[in-house]
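Hello Y.,

Per our agreement to keep a running log of every chain we model this quarter, I'm adding this entry. I've kept the format consistent with earlier entries: sequence first, then predicted structure.
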Amino acid sequence: MSGVQQVLLSNARWKRWEPIVWVLPVVVLSLFPSQAFLMNQIAVMALFAVSLDLILGYTGIMSLGHAAFFGLGAFSAALFAKFVAPDPLLGLVVALVLSGLVGALCSLTVMRGTELTIVMVTLGVSLVFLEIANNMTWLTGGADGLQGVVVGPVLGLFSFGIDGMTAAYYSLAVLLVFFLLVRRLVNSPFGVGLKAIRDNRLRASAIGIFPESRIIVVYTISAAIAGVAGAVLAQCMSFASLDIFAFDRSADVLLMVVIGGVGWLYGGIIGAVVFSSMHQVLSDLTPEYWMFWLGIFLVALMRVGRDRFIRPWTLFRRHGHE
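Predicted structure for the entry above:
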């Protein structure tokens, strides 16, 4: 077995602390069922953050328009539940396929150009989707959103109730499944090729890696996962609104990835926990000024340094960097 294969196998193995990460939310839900809604939001945004980190942290493609796929997945699942079938798992498949197909088309727009060009192009794509959804009021509901969405029980057994428990466990389960898939992807030879493209695209081409084809594949996968995250949100809320396409969504998920750590899958999850929790607490304490305190935190995080600001992250990344 080569040295590269040994490193990949080592990275793919579960670390001793990882099961705790996935058991902890279940424990929290058992002890504090009133936090089910917050847990659901964290799980959805964590999956969204993981999808962005796949292209940002592992491929080096900056995007300010990832909300386009998030919103597409949300409306796809909501429309499917309203007009075709209420089964949530079928809705996830529809959202995954449609978002992936659109992501494959949009991947052609990030092949060439500087980082600034790519940022502006991805932002433009998101704005185009927002305007299309806003004008197709007969389908999306326009500014009022898509209402009257009824989602059936998960596996025909677990209904979405007002307590939010089914939604929380459902979103956590979907997060775990796709996290494992992405984890396997980044710790494969394909993932090594993505990191080579991120570090130096010209050098990657020189050693026989084809950046264009890999970018198309990874961008498609990233868009599909973002669509699944949006679908889960729409199914749990039984509603889809235009603000899902908004720039705020793309900016928020980018902040989550930065807070948790770019190029580390658990960074997206940690960023979602920190951002969503701070939003919840600060908006309760100071509804008008919560963004001010969040800004102070971000400035301190960037100036002091993430590793020195929160030491446990350093330990986790040292023993289990993806």
